[in-house]
Design brief:
Layout lengths: L1 H26 L4 H4 L5 H11 L15 H9 L5 H16 L4 H13 L6 H12 L5 H14 L2 H12 L8 H13 L6 H17 L3 H14 L1 H4 L2 H11 L7 H16 L10 H5 L9 H6 L9 H5 L16 H29 L1
Helix pairs in contact: 1-19, 3-5, 5-6, 6-8, 7-8, 8-10, 9-11, 10-11, 10-12, 11-12, 12-15, 14-15
Length: about 350
């Protein structure tokens, strides 16, 4: 029995060591070589070109599209915005000289990673890409998203109005709505002015939406984040207007609009918001707004609950975006497996000992 006990202890210690190593490696996913500061611009550009092909296409709950770039920057010794800008735009310019899907993807990824830079040169470059109608729409909306991440409140307002309050400049507004909502949700609470600028611009966009599908999408984003908008008579009027349109081929659009209209009609009293683009242009969101003015541009703002963001209307739980289990969950699972394996080995050893 002593031999059996020693074997069991050895197995348990081996499993514990494995679990600790797995948890440590998950907390420090980068290799030691990746953590050394890069000494020159050529090395930085080469390392970026290697790492930029990371898993950018799978954004899981709690992630932002820029997390990989943020992690790379820490591993690379925190190069400045100017150095990151120079390296990424060099990669972009080189990709512009080539054709094909790989070159297009590389340009898009370089523009995405520029979202971690807040310098003026980067903002100017992203504005240039976003406004270039010769570029493909996905690249342009990626540039808008990266620009919005580091824009201040006034820059945010101007960018959104430029691409939402007109002929959309050839940009799909649905993509801009989605990017604006994502930036809003990841904006720090202390930067309330930027959140309000996003809501104000989206209210202008909602008032200008001609189609039911586009309106329902921007309305959903606004209603989840601004209680004043949700209860406003301006929203009720827009819902009434779009409810008169013929049914769409999108089953969820019509169902969502019907539910939103019923809710809006149920309010005993309604608030009021401003959907005047000309008036919004005169507002400087970098200045502190009076309480009454703030109420006009969205009132009390909130961030939707995690459940609401993970399960948008019309999406069944089994078809929602893939979720990544936490490191603790995986370690716990491995721990359970280790116990089962150990118990099985003990059972076999005990039977052998009994046989002898």
């Amino acid at each position: 029995m002593k031999a059996i006990f020693k074997t069991a202890v050895l197995l348990l210690l081996t499993n514990v060591a494995f679990l600790l190593e797995a948890e440590h490696s998950e907390a420090s996913p980068s290799l030691a070589a990746e953590q050394a500061p890069l000494l020159d611009d050529d090395a930085l550009r080469a390392r970026l070109l290697k790492r930029i092909w990371g898993d950018n296409d799978n954004i899981y709950p709690g992630w932002t599209p820029w997390d990989l770039a943020i992690w790379f920057r820490k591993e690379a010794g925190n190069p400045s915005d100017e150095r990151m800008h120079a390296a990424l735009t060099a990669i972009y310019r080189e990709a512009e000289t080539r054709e094909g899907k790989e070159a297009r993807d590389l340009r898009t990824r370089a523009v995405l990673w520029l979202g971690v830079c807040a310098d003026d040169a980067t903002k100017a470059f992203l504005l240039e890409v976003a406004a270039d109608t010769s570029k493909d729409g996905f690249l342009r909306t990626t540039a808008i998203s990266s620009y919005l991440r580091n824009a201040d409140a006034e820059e945010t307002k101007d960018m959104l109005l430029q691409f939402l309050a007109g002929d959309h400049c050839g940009i799909d507004p649905l993509s801009v709505y989605s990017h604006a909502a994502e930036v809003y949700d990841h904006t720090p609470p202390e930067d309330g002015a930027k959140r309000r600028a996003i809501i104000a611009a989206l209210m202008i966009a909602a008032a200008r939406e001609e189609g039911k599908i586009g309106f329902v999408e921007v309305d959903r984003i606004l209603a989840m984040r601004s209680d004043t908008y949700r209860r406003s008579h301006e929203r009720l009027a827009m819902l009434e207007h779009h409810s008169l349109e013929p049914p769409t081929k999108n089953l969820y659009t019509d169902a969502d609009l019907k539910a939103a209209l019923a809710e809006s009609r149920s309010y005993i009293s309604h608030t009021s918001v401003n959907t005047n683009a000309a008036m919004l242009q005169t507002i400087d969101f970098n200045e502190e707004r009076p309480a009454d003015d703030a109420e006009t541009w969205g009132g009390k703002l909130v961030i939707p609950s995690q459940e609401a963001m993970l399960a948008p209307r019309g999406v069944q739980p089994e078809t929602a975006a893939p979720q990544v289990r936490s490191g603790r969950w995986r370690v716990a699972s491995l721990g359970g497996l280790a116990v089962v394996v150990t118990a099985f080995v003990l059972f076999i050893l005990h039977r052998k000992a009994g046989g002898k």
